[in-house]
Design brief:
The chain is 21% helix and 35% strand. By secondary structure, it is α+β, with helices and mostly antiparallel strands. A hairpin with a 2-residue loop joins strand 4 and strand 5.
């Protein structure tokens, strides 16, 4: 079972960050691009809108391993698996006027899809006192409790 306290911590760290950097794998290597952060309650999944004609759409179809980075009052790195979601009800739920301007279309356009990132590992550094805090990690699929890590140590959550 996912540790709700850890999800709450991650939710607090990313809630006010408007833009995240989504990293995908290409044939040439890693590539990152800015993505508008969804204003929904983080429950272990991150959501982003895109169009089917984009490189990121094609890259996710080839390799679902992604990373999402946030920079705000803290620095957060989330590793996970992405999937393309074409659910019209979910698109309508997450849609806002901002996306009409960014994507220049409406949620019911068949070219518009959602990227759902199931978080598998997260690490953060708080910047308030110019000191790095412990890594934040949780087990998503195994049901095991999380363990604190030392600064900059990465612990695998899901195998």
């Amino acid at each position: 079972m996912i540790n709700q306290e850890e999800i709450k911590t991650l939710r607090e760290l990313i809630k006010d960050v408007d833009t995240a950097m989504l990293t995908t794998m290409t044939e040439e290597g890693l590539i990152s691009r800015p993505m508008k952060t969804q204003k929904i309650e983080f429950d272990g999944d991150l959501w982003f809108f895109t169009k089917k004609e984009t490189d990121k759409y094609k890259e996710i179809l080839q390799d679902q391993e992604v990373n999402v980075a946030y920079a705000g009052k803290s620095y957060v790195s989330v590793r996970g698996r992405a999937e393309i979601v074409e659910d019209l009800d979910k698109k309508k739920e997450l849609w806002s006027k901002v996306y009409e301007k960014i994507l220049q279309t409406s949620y019911d356009n068949p070219d518009i899809v959602l990227i759902k990132v199931k978080a598998e590992a997260a690490e953060y550094w708080e910047t308030g006192n110019f000191t790095k805090k412990i890594a934040f990690l949780y087990k998503r699929m195994t049901g095991k409790n999380s363990e604190a890590a030392h600064v900059n140590e990465t612990i695998e959550l899901d195998k």
